[in-house]
Amino acid sequence: MTNPINNIQVEAVSRFVPDQSQPDADRYVFAYTITITNKGQQSAKLINRYWLITDSNGKKNEVSGSGVIGQQPKLLPGESFEYTSGSVVETPVATMQGYYEMVGNDGVPFKAPIDVFRLAIPNILN
Fold it and tell me: Residue ranges of the ApaG domain (predicted)?
């Protein structure tokens, strides 16, 4: 059950970037656009991010750090923040998942989960 005070919705859309990829060298570049929407009842600030990237060989890469794209956006109730970033993996299919560490206007920290989403070159999966 989601907390109505701190209800952060995260949506992800990924795309393959062929001009930066080198399949012969096991280098697959993907861009992903994230939309973070505050559906809660108080403002919330994104403090840190955590990603778990898993390629189709089972190799895992953990990425964490302050904010996103150099920013720590504060979202008022009903507001959204969108950004685009990228990931480089060694296989044509991979997954990403994680969470954002947020802090509510009341000063209480919480995690906003990022559901698993797929990175895949076009037409590789049915």
Answer: 2-126
